[in-house]
Amino acid sequence: MIIDLVNKTVVITGSSRGIGREAAYRFAREGANVIINYKSSYEQAESLLQEIKKINKNCIAVKADVTKVKEVEHLYQETIKTFGRVDVLLNNAGLCSDNRINMMSEDQWKDIMDVNLNSVFLCSKIFSKDMIKNESGKIINIASMKGQIGCEGQTNYSASKAGVIGFTKALAKELGHFKISVNAVCPGFIVTDLNRHNEEKQTAANSLSVIKQDNALDDLMNFLVFLLSDHCKGVSGRIFNIDSRIK
Ligand code: NAP
Predict the structure, then answer these.
(1) CATH for the 9-241 domain, from 3.40.50.720, 3.90.1150.10, 3.40.50.970, 3.30.310.180
(2) How far, in Å, from the CA of 119 to the mean position of ligand 1?
(3) Which tens digits make up the pLDDT trace of 54-77?
(4) pTM of the prediction?
(5) 217-228 vs 18-29: helix axis angle to the nearest 10?
(6) What pLDDT digit, counting tens, does each position of 198-236 carry?
(7) Does 157 participate in catalysis according to the annotation?
(8) Atom of ligand 1 nearest to the CA of 21
(9) Which residue's CA is the closest to the ligand 1 atom numbered 12?
């Protein structure tokens, strides 16, 4: 089976660093038109854009805070202006800000909900306009195992990701009428800026998988490419744990 993403226009929120960055490069390598999105990491986004342009000219980088409706509209307009349509939205932007419940401020709670959950609503609402018109498209939300099993010191993060899972299931039912699929992917532990210096979190992140692997990134990227491709057409409303044990 040959899988490629040629002629697919893919928007990846929060792709200046971490998982989103890897995805942008990998999708571009498979032939996709890629929209890199960032909020503040201009230099990282620009360096990724230059890297990608060596292998695929069809790539742009757009600054937009995905928690702000006007900025998401701007991201959408730039996508349509450059590539004429949108085929895939990968809702990847995410943050964590950990504390036990008695120490967690309201701002800590709200900020995480805003970036991890509200942005998924906003981007899905705005980008699905074009998908509905075309009666075609895919929305993939990056959730987390922690939204399924919960994690101490991360009530905000765990609740936001559980919210993404519920949102995915409901939206899949709504958009299925327009042949648009909506799925969520829960990665295993992948070392990024989100968790690099937190040994405790690494242990807590241990998943239900029985196979030990240091970094689940390759499996995740391969799986995402399959999910985006024309080889995966009718799967929707599903939550995929692409994880492995880390210790
Ligand atoms: P990361 O390395 O910290 O990268 C986060 C990305 O999100 C950055 O590119 C950042 O861009 C962007 N971002 C944050 N707030 C934004 C906003 N308001 N608007 C636009 N972009 C924004 O994190 P990561 O580990 O790659 O995580 C990516 C996703 O995977 C998250 O949803 C996370 O919850 C999920 N996840 C990660 C793991 C893991 O083990 N790493 C496991 C399960 C799930 P700027 O730098 O420009 O702000």
Answers:
(1) 3.40.50.720
(2) 12
(3) 999 999 999 999 999 999 999 999
(4) 0.97
(5) 50
(6) 766 666 666 677 888 876 899 999 999 999 999 999 999
(7) yes
(8) 9
(9) 14
